UniProtKB/TrEMBL annotation:
It comes from Anopheles christyi. Signal peptide: none annotated. Belongs to the 'GDXG' lipolytic enzyme family. Residues 7-530, 550-1079 form the Carboxylesterase type B domain. Keywords: Disulfide bond, Glycoprotein, Hydrolase, Serine esterase. GO terms for molecular function: carboxylic ester hydrolase activity. InterPro entries: AB_hydrolase_fold (IPR029058), CarbesteraseB (IPR002018), Carboxylesterase_B_AS (IPR019826), Carboxylesterase_B_CS (IPR019819), Lipase_GDXG_HIS_AS (IPR002168), Type-B_Carboxylest/Lipase (IPR050309). The keyword rRNA processing does not apply. This is Carboxylesterase type B domain-containing protein.
Length: 1097
C-alpha cells in the first residue's frame, strides 16, 4: 500500500503510524505495535497488567507488529514476555461522527495465537466504516497459571484483554473511534473470552455490543482442571526442590518463558494429554479477594443475573465445527475404538463407570446407529466432538440468555464454502467431507499474508461474500442489529412459560448471498438428543449441575462434595479426592507422609476422584496414576452436625501391595451407607514407592503403612465434620488390605486410632505378608536402573531420580529365586522395622501375636472365601510344566523344610497325592488346584491366626467366617478363563461394595440381594456394636457366635466355630476340616504346630 507517516497523540505520548490504501482505494491509517501496558516481566510476571504511563520513546514509531506472546504457534518467531501490544486500524482519524469500534480477541485455546497483522489484518471491516483494534494477551502459564496461596490469582490473560478495553476507552477517540460504541468480538478462545467479559460486571463497563464466534463461557475446554495442581506440577517439572509456596513461586518466577511454554502440556493428566481439545492453562474462577477479578462465580450463575446495562449479543458457530479435528481423529482413532467414553462431554455429570457406560452407549446408538467406530465413520466422530466442544455449549449460552436477559440476541450458523475457508485447507480435510470447520469464517472478516487471502479478488463470488459478511458484522457494531437490505435477521425469542418446552432458537444460516435465511433446522435433532442426555444426568440441559454440591469446613480448608442417591432413594454425600498428605515427591519419595496443613485452594473441589498411586491396572494392563496420589474419599449418609455421630468404617484396598486404589470403580459403598455408617476409602503408595527399604540412607520402609496410619489420624481429627464418630472407628480390608489391618492391630502405634478390625482373606501370618529380603530387592532395583550404582548413596540417588513408572515396572524383576517360584510376586511389602522414627511393625507378626495381651482389646472379624486359590489358578494352569518339573512349589514357605532335599521331594509327593490322587497334578483339575492354593496361601494361616487370637487375646471377641456364596455379584471370578465353583478371592467384595467398574444389577428379591443385605448388615453391626448379629437385630434370622478363648498353654484341641455365609447363613465348626487336619499333621511334623510358621526366602 502507498505509505505516509501520520502522528496521533495518546495518553502516554505520541505515536507514528502509516497511511495506506484500502482494497477499494480509500485511505486507512494503521498503527501497529502500540504498547497498552507495562511489560509483564520480572516482578510483574503472573500479575495483572499495569497501565503504561509513558511510552518507551516519544514519538514511538508503530510501523510493525509488536512481539507475540509466548505460545506453541511455530509460525511466529518474534515472541517475548514483553508482548502486551495492540494494533489500531482506522478509515478516518477525524470523522464528522465518531466511528464504531471493534476490538478483536484472537483464538488459540489460550495456548497459541496472536493479534498480529499477518493473521488478522481488517481492511474489509475498516472499509465498512469501523475502527478495528487487534490485541495480544498473555497465553499458557504466563497468562493463566493460578496459585492463589502464592499470590497468583490467575486469569492474567483476561485481565490483559480488559486492560486493552480500558486503553480503548481512553484513547480511541484520537483515531476517529467512538468510545461509547465499542463492540468486543472474538473467535474460539477469543469468543469464550468475549462471553466471559459479557458476564462480568467489571468488564461490561468498557464495551457496548459483543460477538462470540464459536466459543462461549460454557465450552467444555474452557475451564482449567485442577489449576493449583497444574501450577505445582509445572514448578516440579522446572526443578522445584519442594512443594512449599515459597519454593514453587521462586521456581516459577526464575524459569525461562520458553521452557515453561515448551513443557506446559506435561502438567495435564495422561488422559487429558490424549484428548483432542484440552489445553493446560485456561481461565479459572477466582477466589474472593483476587486482584482485579473478572470471574468470581460460575457463568451459569452469572448468566442468571439482571445486568444494569443491556448489551446486544451475537452468538454462532460454523455448520461443522468438529471437522477441523478430522486429521487428529484419524490419527487417534484407536483411542475412540478402545474407549468410547471419550465421546462424553466433560460437562456431563457422570461419575460412576455405569453412568459413563450408559452415556457412552446412548451417544453411540444415536450417532453411529450400530455402525462400527472406523475410518468410514470419522465424520460422525468429528460431529460428536464439534457438538461437545462448541455447538451445544453455544446453545446452552443462547438458552440462558433468552431466559434471563432482555438485551437482543442474534444467532447464526456459518455455512459458506469458498476459497477463503482457509482452515479446511490447512488441516487437509478431504473434499468429500462437506461442511465448514471451526474458524473457517475468519478470512471473510480478515486478510492474512500467511494464507495469501489477497489473491481472492473483490469481484469474485467469494470476494462479494466477504464484503457482505463484513457488512453484517459492522452493522451489528454500528446499530446493535446485523441489518442488511437483503436479509431479515430476527433476534432469538425470549423464553417464557408458554414456549419453554418447545423453545429452540432460530439462527441465520449464512450460506451464500441470496441464500441467507433464518432456520430452525440446523442441529435440531442433535440438540434434542443432547438436551435429553443433559436432562438425564445434569437435571437440566441449560445448567451444568452445580446445585448438588455441598461444602464441609475442615481445618485445612473447605471441601466441596457432591450429593448422590443411594439405591433406596435417600441422599448421601460423597467427598472424593481429599488430600491427606503432601505429595510424596522429590526428596519426600520413600519417606513417611507429611500431613497436609492447608489445601491448595480455600474451596477444594472434591466432587471427583484424583490420581491413583502409580500401578498397573490388572484389568486392562495399562499403567496409571501418579506420585501425587495420597487422597481419601469420605461417604456419609448425613451431614447434620446435631445428629448422633455414626460409626466409621475405614477400608484398606487389596492388590498385593502393588495394585489397586480406594476409588469407587471398585469400592463404592452405597449399600454400607444404607446401614447408616460413614465410610472412608483411600489410596496408599504401592510397590517400591510404598515399601522400598534402604535404612542406611534413612529409608526405613513401610511408607505405605505410614500412609494408612496418617489416614487414621486424619479420620480422628476430621471425621466429626462428616457426622462420623471418631470414638467408633472400624478398620477393615481385604487381601493385602487385610494384612495391613492385621499389622495395625498388632501395632501399639496404630491401635490408639481404631476400635474394631475386619480382616478379609488374609492376615499378617501369610507367607507373602512380611518378606526377609526387601533390602536386597531395593538394591537390585537400583542396579536394574543403573548397573554402576554400587554403594547405598549411589543407589538412593538412582532411585530418587528414576521415573516413578520405571520403578513400578521393574518391581517384579527384583524378586528372589524363592519368590519367583510362587504363584504371585510381591517383592515390595511390609518389613520389620526397629529403627524408624515411628515404628508400625517392631516385631515379626508371629512374635507380636504372642504378646497380644498388651494390645488394647479390639474385636476382630476374620475369614476367607471357599475358593480363595482361584486367584492363583491362571499361574498354575498356564504354566503346568513348571509345576510338573518342580512340585516343591506347592510346599508352603512357612514350613521348616529345605528346598531340594529328599525330605522336600517326599513332602511334595504327599501333598500332590492328597489333592490330586493317584493320577497326580493336572491343570485340568481346576477345583483341586484352587483348593490347594486356597489352603496353603490362605486357610492354614488364617486358622492359625484364629487359634493364636483365642489363646492370647481374651479380652476381645473374635468372629470367624467362610464365605461360600456363588452368585451374580461374585465379580472377580469372572476374570478367570475357566469356571470354578464357590467363592473366589475377593468375591465377597461384590456383596459389600457397588463395583462401578463391573456393574451388575440384581433383583431386590433375588438371593444375591439377600446375601448382600446380610453381609452389609453384619459388617455394619460389627462396626456399630462389635457384634455382627446382636440379639436385638431381628433382620438377621441367625446368630453368629464368637470363637471361645483358650489358655495360652492349653493342650486341648482347638476347634474353630465359624459362620458359613451362603444364601442361608448358619454356624458350623472347623472349616475345611479334612484338608486342615492334613496340614495340621504336616505342620506338627515339620514345625511343631500349625501356629509355629517359619519364614524364609
Amino acid at each position: 500500500m502507498a505509505e505516509g507517516k501520520i502522528t496521533v497523540s495518546i495518553q502516554p505520548g505520541n505515536i507514528v503510524g502509516l497511511k495506506g490504501a484500502l482494497p477499494n482505494g480509500t485511505d486507512w491509517y494503521v498503527f501497529k505495535g502500540i504498547p497498552y501496558a507495562q511489560p509483564p516481566v520480572g516482578p510483574l510476571r503472573f500479575k495483572p497488567p499495569v497501565p503504561l504511563d509513558t511510552l518507551p520513546t516519544d514519538p514511538l514509531e508503530c510501523f510493525i507488529d509488536g512481539p507475540s506472546c509466548y505460545s506453541e504457534d511455530v509460525r511466529f518467531q518474534r515472541m517475548s514476555e514483553d508482548c502486551l501490544y495492540l494494533n489500531v486500524y482506522s478509515p478516518q482519524l477525524h470523522p464528522k461522527t465518531p466511528l464504531p469500534v471493534m476490538v478483536w480477541i484472537h483464538g488459540g485455546g489460550f495456548y497459541s495465537g496472536t493479534g498480529d497483522s499477518a493473521l488478522y489484518e481488517p481492511p474489509y471491516l475498516v472499509q465498512q466504516g469501523a475502527v478495528v483494534v487487534c490485541i495480544n494477551y498473555r497465553l499458557g502459564p504466563l497468562g493463566f497459571l493460578s496459585l492463589p496461596s502464592a499470590g497468583i490469582d490467575g486469569n492474567m490473560g483476561l485481565k490483559d484483554q480488559r486492560m486493552s478495553l480500558r486503553w480503548v476507552q481512553e484513547n480511541i477517540a484520537n483515531f476517529g473511534g467512538d468510545p461509547n460504541n465499542v463492540t468486543l468480538f472474538g473467535e474460539s478462545a477469543g469468543g469464550a473470552s468475549v462471553h466471559l467479559h459479557y458476564l462480568s460486571e467489571a468488564s461490561r463497563v468498557f464495551f457496548h455490543k459483543a460477538i462470540a464466534q464459536s466459543g462461549t463461557a460454557f465450552n467444555e475446554w474452557l475451564w482449567q482442571r485442577e489449576p493449583v495442581e497444574r501450577a505445582r506440577k509445572l514448578a516440579q517439572l522446572l526443578g522445584a526442590s519442594d512443594e512449599s509456596d515459597e519454593t514453587v513461586l521462586a521456581t516459577l518466577m526464575s524459569a525461562s518463558a520458553e521452557k515453561m511454554t515448551a513443557i506446559q502440556n506435561q502438567c495435564m493428566s495422561e488422559r487429558d494429554q490424549t484428548m483432542l481439545v484440552r489445553f493446560p492453562f485456561t481461565p479459572v474462577i477466582e477466589e474472593d479477594g483476587a486482584v482485579d477479578a473478572i470471574i468470581t462465580e460460575h457463568p451459569s450463575r452469572a448468566a442468571e443475573k439482571v445486568f444494569r446495562k443491556e448489551i446486544p449479543l451475537m452468538l454462532g458457530s460454523t455448520n461443522n465445527e468438529g471437522l477441523v479435528l478430522w486429521g487428529f481423529v484419524k490419527e487417534k482413532l484407536p483411542l475412540f475404538q478402545t474407549d468410547p467414553t471419550r465421546f462424553i462431554p466433560a460437562t456431563l455429570d457422570v461419575h460412576s463407570e455405569e453412568d459413563k457406560r450408559n452415556a457412552s452407549e446412548a451417544i453411540q446408538k444415536f450417532f453411529f446407529n450400530d455402525r462400527p467406530i472406523s475410518l468410514e465413520t470419522i465424520r460422525i466422530i468429528t460431529t460428536i466432538l464439534g457438538d461437545n466442544v462448541n455447538t451445544f455449549p453455544g446453545y446452552i449460552a443462547t438458552g440462558l440468555h433468552a431466559r434471563f436477559q432482555s438485551a437482543p440476541l442474534y444467532m447464526y450458523v456459518f455455512s459458506h464454502m469458498g476459497e477463503l475457508n482457509m482452515y479446511r485447507k490447512e488441516f487437509k480435510i478431504p473434499p468429500e467431507e462437506i461442511g465448514v470447520c471451526h474458524a473457517d469464517e475468519l478470512y471473510y472478516l480478515f486478510s492474512s499474508s500467511i494464507y495469501n487471502t489477497a489473491a481472492v479478488q473483490d469481484h469474485t463470488e467469494c470476494g462479494r461474500f466477504r464484503e457482505y459478511f463484513c457488512n453484517l458484522w459492522v452493522n451489528f457494531a454500528r446499530f446493535g442489529n446485523p441489518h442488511a437490505t437483503i436479509v431479515d435477521w430476527v433476534p432469538v425469542e425470549r423464553v417464557t412459560k408458554e414456549n419453554e418446552k418447545r423453545f429452540y432458537p432460530a439462527a441465520m444460516n449464512l450460506k451464500d448471498i441470496g441464500e441467507c435465511k433464518m432456520t430452525t433446522e440446523f442441529f435440531y435433532e442433535r440438540y434434542q438428543f443432547w438436551k435429553n442426555l443433559y436432562q438425564k444426568f445434569n437435571g437440566s440441559h441449560l445448567l451444568p449441575k452445580v446445585s448438588n454440591r455441598t461444602n464441609v469446613d475442615l481445618k485445612c480448608g473447605t471441601v466441596c462434595g457432591i450429593v448422590e442417591k443411594l439405591p433406596d432413594g435417600n441422599d448421601f454425600y460423597a467427598f472424593r479426592g481429599i488430600p491427606y498428605a503432601q505429595p510424596p515427591v522429590n526428596k519426600h519419595r520413600f519417606q513417611p507422609p507429611i500431613p497436609i496443613t492447608k489445601f491448595a485452594a480455600p474451596l477444594l473441589d472434591c466432587s471427583k476422584e484424583r490420581d491413583t498411586c502409580v500401578a498397573k491396572n490388572p484389568f486392562n494392563q495399562q499403567w496409571q496414576g501418579s506420585e501425587n496420589c495420597l487422597h481419601l474419599n469420605v461417604y456419609t449418609p448425613q451431614l447434620n452436625r446435631n445428629a448422633t455421630p455414626l460409626p466409621v468404617m475405614v477400608f484398606i484396598h487389596g492388590g498385593a501391595f502393588k495394585y489397586g486404589s480406594g476409588n469407587s470403580d471398585c469400592y463404592s459403598p452405597e449399600y454400607l451407607l444404607e446401614q447408616n455408617v460413614v465410610v472412608v476409602t483411600f489410596n496408599y503408595r504401592l510397590g517400591p514407592l510404598g515399601f522400598l527399604h534402604l535404612p542406611s540412607q534413612g529409608i526405613e520402609g513401610n511408607a505405605a503403612l505410614k500412609d494408612q496410619l496418617l489416614v487414621l489420624r486424619w479420620v480422628a481429627e476430621n471425621i466429626t465434620h462428616f457426622n462420623g464418630d471418631p470414638n467408633n472407628v472400624t478398620l477393615f480390608g481385604e487381601s493385602a488390605g487385610a494384612i495391613s489391618v492385621h499389622l495395625h492391630l498388632l501395632s501399639p502405634v496404630s491401635t490408639k486410632l481404631f476400635h474394631k478390625a475386619i480382616c478379609e482373606s488374609s492376615v499378617a501370618l501369610a507367607d507373602y505378608a512380611v518378606p526377609n529380603d526387601t533390602l536386597g530387592n531395593s538394591r537390585r532395583l537400583a542396579q536394574l536402573i543403573n548397573p554402576s550404582a554400587n554403594t547405598d548413596p549411589e543407589m538412593l540417588e538412582t532411585l530418587l531420580s528414576a521415573p516413578a513408572k520405571q520403578l513400578a515396572e521393574l518391581c517384579d524383576r527384583t524378586a528372589t529365586g524363592q519368590e519367583k517360584r510362587g504363584a504371585i510376586l510381591m517383592p515390595f511389602r511390609p518389613v520389620v522395622d526397629v529403627s524408624g522414627k515411628e515404628v508400625i511393625v517392631p516385631l515379626h507378626p508371629i512374635k507380636a501375636m504372642g504378646t497380644a495381651r498388651r494390645i488394647p482389646p479390639i474385636p476382630l472379624l476374620l475369614g476367607y472365601n471357599s475358593r480363595e486359590g482361584g486367584s492363583f489358578l491362571t499361574h498354575i494352569v498356564k504354566y503346568p510344566e513348571r509345576y510338573r518339573e518342580d512340585m516343591e512349589r506347592i510346599i508352603p514357605r512357612t514350613l521348616n523344610v529345605k528346598h531340594g532335599t529328599p525330605e522336600a521331594r517326599e513332602l511334595a509327593r504327599r501333598i500332590e497325592s492328597f489333592y490330586f490322587g493317584s493320577e497326580g497334578y493336572s491343570p485340568r483339575k481346576v477345583n483341586e488346584c484352587a483348593d490347594l492354593m486356597s489352603d496353603f496361601s490362605f486357610a492354614i494361616l488364617m486358622r492359625a491366626t484364629a487359634e493364636m487370637h483365642a489363646r492370647y487375646q481374651h479380652r476381645s471377641p473374635l468372629y470367624f467366617y467362610r464365605f461360600e456364596y456363588d452368585g451374580l455379584l461374585n465379580q472377580y471370578k469372572k476374570f478367570l478363563p475357566f469356571p470354578i465353583s464357590g467363592a473366589y478371592h475377593a468375591d465377597e467384595l461384590g456383596y459389600l461394595f457397588r463395583m462401578r467398574m463391573l456393574p451388575k444389577e440384581v433383583h431386590p428379591q433375588s438371593d444375591e440381594a439377600r446375601v448382600r443385605r446380610y453381609m452389609c448388615r453384619m459388617w455394619t453391626n460389627f462396626a456399630r456394636y462389635g457384634d455382627p448379629t446382636p440379639l436385638h437385630d431381628e433382620s438377621l434370622p441367625y446368630r453368629w457366635t464368637p470363637v471361645p478363648p483358650m489358655e495360652p498353654d492349653s493342650t486341648a484341641p482347638f476347634h474353630l466355630p465359624y459362620l458359613r455365609i451362603n444364601d442361608e447363613p448358619e454356624m458350623a465348626v472347623d472349616p475345611d476340616k479334612e484338608r486342615i487336619d492334613f496340614w495340621k499333621k504336616i505342620y506338627d511334623e515339620f514345625n511343631g504346630g500349625l501356629h509355629n510358621p517359619v519364614y524364609k526366602l
